[in-house]
Specification:
With about 180 residues, this protein is mainly β. It has one domain (about 25-179): Porin. About 10% of the residues lie in helices and about 70% in strands. It has one helix spanning about 1-20, and strands at about 25-35, 45, 50-60, 65-75, 80-100, 100-120, 125-140, 145-160, 165-179. Strands 1-3-4-5-6-7-8-9 form an eight-stranded antiparallel beta barrel. Strand 7 and strand 8 (about 145-160) form a beta hairpin.
Length: about 180
Amino acid sequence: MKRFILSAVLCIVAAPAALAADSGFYSGTSIGGTSVSNPTAFSLTKSSDFVFGGFIGYRLNPNLGFEGAYTGIGRFRNATQSGKADALSLDVVGFWPIANKFELVGKLGVADAFGKSAKGGLSNAHRVAATYGVGLQFNPTESIGIRVGIDRFAAAVKEATATHDYNSDVFGATFVYRF
């Protein structure tokens, strides 16, 4: 009877870990920098190099997954105005093994970037647009990955009379943990 109870307790304790290992869920956190490019005449420049983000994903099979993420996409400024932008995104992610423990990563999705004014005549603005990225991931163990890459986000700032679109390239390193 004691063995039965001990076996039952061990099964109850070990079952969630065993199921999680096969679940396909993973999460991660990233740090990096930004580069603002401005296709309009608004003359934005970046004023911050450091950004961070986090995500949760689900890998359907070895080559396809989905990720939902929050990403800081940097600070912006021109001669008299400044602010910062963040994005929420949902991406389809492709994984292509290229060598032992290495894989290429490609992302394509949609992001809602929201700019927040810090000073000047700007007001908060949202821009929903396509987002994409590429990277290289090293998987030293089955549960840990390290990814480097670049992602492009479209964002906007709003003045009283016009909305100005711009792009923010986020490059950095990501720590990935598979459950």
